[in-house]
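Thread: Newbie trying to understand structure tokens

Hi all, I'm a second-year student working on a class project, and my supervisor (Dr. K.) asked me to get a predicted structure for one chain before our next meeting. I've only ever worked with sequences, so writing a 3D structure as a token string is new to me. If someone could post the tokens and maybe explain what I'm looking at, I'd be very grateful. Here's the chain:
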Amino acid sequence: MVTKEGARKGITPVISVIILLFIAIAIIGIASQFIFGIISGPTEKAFQIPPNSAFCKKAGSDYYINVYVRNAGIGTLTEKDFVVHEIDGASVTFISANLPIEKGSESKLIIDHKLSDCPQGDCIGLHTLIIGTSAGIQELQIRCS
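---
Reply by user tm_fold:
Sure, no problem. This is what the structure looks like when written as tokens:
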């Protein structure tokens, strides 16, 4: 194509606009993936402990803490997902857990808290349970009597 001044115009401006559009779309895609990762990361392994669903139960001379946990996240919760579980600052283990917990489901976790685990061998009283996943940590006060 020849213009009035005799200079040639090519297809280069059209190609450069198309390339700029592809670059803009790629940047928008990368940014949306980054933002989605930030938003969905904390909610993937989220859980709730409904009110009055953590209690102490005595079996023989041992005390066990029962906790009902509801999966409030977008993924399945497994035992490995519970990265923090302690009573009064001491790490404890699940002795019984109906895991994995599917999205929207609830399960009972039984935590071992024997007399030998208590200060001076007395489990009666108020205890602090800390349980958590990568999405968050919950702290509960539980009374054993």
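A couple of things are worth pointing out once you decode it. The first helix runs from residue 12 to 44. The two ends are 94 Å apart (CA to CA). Feel free to ask follow-ups in this thread.
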